[in-house]
Amino acid sequence: MKRIAVMTSGGDAPGMNAAIRAVVRTALHYKIEVYGIRQAYAGLLNGDMHLMTSRDVSGILQKGGTILQTARNEEFKTAQGQRKALRRLNENGIEGVIVIGGDGSLRGAMALERIGIPVVGVPASIDNDIYGTSMSIGVDTALNTILDALDRLRDTATSHNRAFLIEVMGRNCGYLALMSGILGGAEVVITPERSVAMEDVAAQMGDAYVRGKSHAIAVIAEGAPYKTTDLLTFLNSKNLGFEIRLTILGHIQRGGNPTAFDRLLATRMGVNAMERLMSGEHHIMVGLNGREIVSVPLEDATSKEREISEDYYRMEHILSR
Ligand code: ADP
Ligand code: F6P
C-alpha cells in the first residue's frame, strides 16, 4: 500500500483533529502517503484532496472541530455519486480510505467498500450512538461541556428557587442526557429510548418542591418524543411551586478542546486504524472494548443498535429522589 486518504464526515466531534494527526503521522512513519480529503464525501466527489505532510498536522492535537472540515452530501448516497467517487480515488492513486465520523459516515464507508475501496472507520460522534465501541471520539468532551453548563445553571436555579429544563443533543440516543443527568444531579431525565410523560415530569418536579429542594433540573435529549418548548408550556400551566426556565445548549456541545480522554482515544484509534488498513484489514471500524482497541465489522457497526446499560437508568432513578 503506497497511498491512502483520510476524511472527517458528519457532525464534527472534539478529537477528530487528534485522530487525523495520528493517522497521518502513522502513515508517514510507515512511508505511506496520505491525502487529506476536505469536506468529506462532498470533497471526495469534487476531487478536493491534497497530499499531507507531518507539518500539516502540527499544533492540531488540542483543537476542536476538524482541519479537514466536514459536510453532509446526498449525491454520494446514489450509485452514480459513488462511481464518481471511485473515479476520483483512482485518479489520485488512492488504495484505501480512513473515514472518521458518525454512523451515517460509516454507512458511506460501507458504500466505498462495495465499490472496491478498502476502508477502516473510526467512530466519532458526540451522541455515542455507534454500535461496537463503548465510547466514540468527542463524547467525553461534550459530556464535560454539558456538565459545566449544568453546574452553572444549578447555581442560578438554586438562587431563585427555580426549575430548569435543559435540552442536550442526541437525535436518536439518550446517552448524553442520561449521563449528564446522573453526573449533574438532575431530578428528571428524558431520552428518546425512555420517555417520561409530561404529567409525570410535573409530578416529579412538584414533588421536589414540596420535599424542600431549592431547585429542580430536567435534562431532555433533543430526540425526546415531545418538544422541550411544549413541555415548558405544559409545566407552566401547572402549579409546581418553582418558576421554570428552559435552556437549549445546542452546538456549544460540539465545540471546544478535546479532553485528555478524547485525545487519547482519538490517538489510539487513529494509529490502530492506520496499522490495520496497511496490514490488509478493512471493511471494519475500530472500537473501544474495555481497555483494548478492537475491530468490529462495518456491517455490525452500521446495522446494530448500541444500547444504554439498564444499570444507568436504575442508578438515575435511585439517585434523583
Ligand atoms: P453522521 O456521520 O454524523 O451520522 P450523517 O448521518 O449526516 O452524519 O452522514 C454523513 C454523510 O455520510 C451523509 O451526508 C452522506 O454523505 C454519507 N452517508 C450517510 N448514509 C449513507 C448511505 N447509506 N450511503 C452512502 N453515504 C451515506
Ligand atoms: O450526530 C450528532 C449531532 O450532534 C446530533 O445530536 C444532532 O441532532 C445533530 O448532530 C445536529 O447536527 P447539525 O446541526 O450539524 O445538522
Structure description:
The model has no long low-confidence stretch (mean pLDDT 97). The protein has a seven-stranded mixed β-sheet with strand order 3-2-1-4-5-10-11, with helices on both faces. A four-stranded parallel β-sheet has the order 7-8-6-9, with helices on both faces. It is of the alpha/beta class. It folds into two domains: 3-138 and 258-303, Rossmann fold (3-Layer(aba) Sandwich); 142-254, Phosphofructokinase domain (Rossmann fold, 3-Layer(aba) Sandwich), CATH 3.40.50.460. The chain is built from eleven helices and eleven strands. 42% of the residues lie in helices and 18% in strands. β7, α7 (198-210) and β8 form a beta-alpha-beta unit. It has helices at residues 16-29, 40-46, 79-91, 103-114, 139-160, 175-183, 198-210, 228-236, 260-278, 298-303, 310-319, and strands spanning 3-9, 33-37, 49-51, 97-101, 119-123, 162-168, 188-190, 216-221, 243-248, 284-289, 292-297. The structure holds adenosine-5'-diphosphate and 6-O-phosphono-beta-D-fructofuranose (F6P).
Low-confidence stretches: none
Percent of residues in beta strands: 15-25%
User: What would you call the structural class?
Assistant: alpha/beta
Number of helices: 11
Question: What's the gyration radius in Å?
Answer: 22 Å
Largest sheet: 7 strands, mixed
Q: Strand tally, please?
A: 11
What is the number of independent domains? Answer: 2
- Identify the bound ligands: adenosine-5'-diphosphate, 6-O-phosphono-beta-D-fructofuranose
Could you tell me how far the N terminus lies from the C terminus, measured between alpha carbons in angstroms?
58 Å
CATH topology of the largest domain: Rossmann fold
Tertiary shape? elongated
Helix content: 40-55%
**Could you say what the CATH architecture of the largest domain is?**
3-Layer(aba) Sandwich
Average pLDDT confidence is 97
Strand order of the largest sheet: 3-2-1-4-5-10-11
Look at the structure and give the CATH class of the largest domain: Alpha Beta
Name the helix and strand elements from N-terminus to C-terminus, one letter apiece: EHEHEHEHEHEHEHEHEHEEHH
